[in-house]
Write a structure and sequence with these properties.
Elements lengths: L1 E7 L18 H14 L8 E4 L3 H13 L7 E3 L9 H8 L7 E6 L3 H9 L12 E6 L11 E6 L6
Parallel strand pairs: 1-4, 2-3, 2-4
Antiparallel strand pairs: 1-5, 5-6
Helix pairs in contact: 1-2
Length: 161
């Protein structure tokens, strides 16, 4: 059994004159990260590995979740392939995760996140919002065998406001 925790990066700011990859979180994004990650503390998640896009907004979101969930920071790897909007690199990256990892947390971007949860989960979600969390369980022993799983949990910022 494998568990995947997908998190779309929090709301980013467009008011800075930077390339897309370097956009920071805006105030709402920072507040949502705190609210969502602190709410997830109640789930007692045991996370074996964290992967994040290396875009500023994704890694900032990931770092805050790591801090608030007391995840060992050495479990996180930044992966430029997760700076992916189509979803092909997201799928490829997940399939390449070591078989020893049972619970994987991934921070990425839309439309890749929404497409992934609708392809591999069993619950249709029109749009995973910024800072949205979706947990899918897979009845597999190896990430390379990724197939349709069961969407077991969703949490969106609007659920807590």
């Amino acid at each position: 059994m494998k568990k995947l925790i997908l998190v779309r990066h929090a709301k980013s700011s467009w008011k800075h004159n930077v390339i897309d990859h370097e956009r920071p979180l805006n105030e709402r994004g920072v507040n949502d990260v705190e609210m969502m990650s602190n709410h997830l503390k109640n789930r007692d998640l045991i996370i074996n590995k964290v992967l994040s896009s290396d875009a500023v907004r994704a890694k900032t979101t990931a770092n805050a979740f790591i801090l608030n969930l007391n995840i060992d920071k050495y479990l996180m790897d930044l992966n430029h392939n997760l700076y992916d909007f189509s979803g092909q690199n997201l799928i490829k990256t997940i399939k390449e995760v070591d078989v020893s990892i049972n619970t994987l947390m991934v921070f990425g971007h839309n439309h890749a996140i929404t497409d992934f949860v609708n392809t591999y989960g069993d619950k249709y979600i029109e749009n995973v919002p910024t800072c949205g969390v979706v947990i899918i369980e897979f009845d597999i022993d190896n990430w390379a065998d990724l197939n349709k799983g069961k969407t077991v949990y969703t949490l969106f910022p609007k659920d807590l406001k």
